[in-house]
Amino acid sequence: MEGADLAGKLLSPWLVLVLGLILLPSALGVNLGVSEIYLKVLVKTLQWATIRIEKGGRKESILNSASVGIIERDESPMEKGLSGLRGRDFELSDVFYFSKKGLEAIVEDEVTQRFSSEELVSWNLLTRTNINFHYISLRLTTVWVLGVLVRYCILLPLRVTLAFIGISLLVVGTTLVGQLPDSSLRNRLSELVHLTCCRICVRAFSGTIHYHNKQYRPQKGGICVANHTSPIDVLILTTDGCYTMVGQVHGGLLGIMQRAMVKSCPHVWFERSEMKDRHLVTKRLKEHIADKKKLPILIFPEGTCINNTSVMMFKKGSFEIGGTIHPVAIKYNPQFGDAFWNSSKYSMVSHLLRMMTSWAIVCDVWYLPPMTREEGEDAVQFANRVKSAIAIQGGLTELPWDGGLKRAKVKDTFKEEQQKNYSKMIVGNGSLNAKSD
Amino acid sequence: MGAAHSASAEVRELEGKTGFSSEQIEQLHRRFKQLSGDQPTIRKENFNNVPDLELNPIRSKIVRAFFDNRNLRKGPSGLADEINFEDFLTIMSYFRPIDTTMGEEQVELSRKEKLRFLFHMYDSDSDGRITLEEYRNVVEELLSGNPHIEKESARSIADGAMMEAASVCVGQMEPDQVYEGITFEDFLKIWQGIDIETKMHVRFLNMETIALCH
Questions:
Q1: B143 touching chain A per CB within 8 A
Q2: What are phi and psi for residue A308, nearest 5 degrees?
Q3: pTM flag (> 0.80)
Q4: Which of B52, B122, B205 faces A72 most closely, judged by CB atoms?
Q5: pLDDT one-digit tens code per residue, A118-158
Q6: Which of A94, A111, A391, B102 would bridge A311 by S-S if both were Cys, CB 3.0 to 4.6 A apart?
Q7: Chain A touched by B4 (CB under 8 Å)
Q8: Is A331 helix (H, G, I), strand (E, B) or coil?
Q9: Which helix (H) or strand (E) is A168 found in, with range?
Q10: Number of residue pairs across A and B with CB atoms under 8 Å?
Q11: ipTM of the complex model
Q12: Whole-angstrom distance, CA of residue A32 vs CA of residue A47
């Protein structure tokens, strides 16, 4: 009894604190400013740490920016690279060019580096981001140890509790709301439940989100597209407005949440088998946006998580549905925590735990003006246009490669395109050579 | 890199052998680990993970060059099954820009090394000569992606080029003199006086550590 008494005494003030400081403000959408203070303290500490590292003097301990890379690639197009030596035996010289290109690709290729976390320029006191971990000074190590203690012993339990509360509230809340008859009250309540729970979950990551251009927030009956870095992208967008989510039905905890959510709000969940049938998917989505009262659909056209330094190919399927597209750019600040989910390295649960033991998740969300498909533009061109807009706004580089390359190999059709270009050039020359003979 | 002390002795040795700076070696080591999947050696299959390389028409020859015993300076012919980091760096060093501040002899030597690397790429059976068959093989590979080009055109291109090479190396031939193939000396003759340095080097950046504040 004594033990239970004690536990009760310890828990109740804590619970009251949690309720007052987190749950109520989340429901009302009010920000108490605790995160801002926390972040300011964090930034000052990290600046101090960086200065100490520099003073430490050892050059190896400073990371080089990954975007600089190790080689300066020769970006000149194939024609220029191949010309010049053409007076002589042309195949011999072309082999020079291709072996150089091949070696550049082996040393550093643009695609696979997008599937691993971004390297930081200055250390952020998390060993997971520093590959060249050297001992610098006692003070720095003490601060790091303190950081570990704070993150694992204070922040982690708090965050896990919050996440737990958030998820259970979501499941219970949406099930209850689902019992009500279809009416505007029900829709408003469902939105409220979704918003509150997402805000609680975002606080579970100590997330700070800056929204820009709120006037372009996606409207009902539209489609919202965004770049994809992490499974919590959905949470980040839903804190500011409700969306209809699209995706596969999962098992386990995620499945429970999905089934609960669809009771109060018409999310579009597909069975695995249905996902393969593109026409079925397009049909259902078209029906959804035809109803102007329904919430905007949220789609991630890249199809997989990319590491937030670039935007990869947008799959054209989402752009064939029609309707107005509202692009959104999401950029995380890697200094405070790495949001990228490397699904080949970590499972979802370990990824979430890693995020909960980082400092914080800080990101910027830019809403972009709506776009529609123009006359004479096909789905692929439209997709590229939207992709450029998002990349420019978010400060990300644009790559034409398919995110599916994370797991699959390059399509043969792509290879053949390139080789066709080259052989056109040779045959052109070859026929000239034959004539001069 | 864990234990700093023994690693730096190794790094210094590699620096001397291959000419890369220690920062470049560390960066390349990370790339090596990424390609090998954290194993100590790389096999041919590991190069399948580089999407950019897939587009290259002579991909298989490039990969083969990494395992060629002649390039690795391990023997006159044959292919190694796997290569370690030092071998990796050895191959990379063929693509380092020629340091023009070195003496003329050194420059000539580096140039020869690069041309020899390319010669090995053509001479797949390691007999010291690029025969007509081997030449045709390279041209076919270069043109392999285009289904519209028939084998015949590829052959005629190769034959034409081979004849030109013969005229450069041997001069006027007797009617029944058979041109055996391009030897390395002939190969050098073809490229005499032509600046190949810019075509055959990869600009490795000097990793000056940048001190940055957040």
A1: yes
A2: 70, 15
A3: no
A4: B205
A5: 666 666 666 665 555 566 677 777 877 888 888 888 888 88
A6: A391
A7: yes
A8: strand
A9: helix A156-179
A10: 200
A11: 0.77
A12: 25
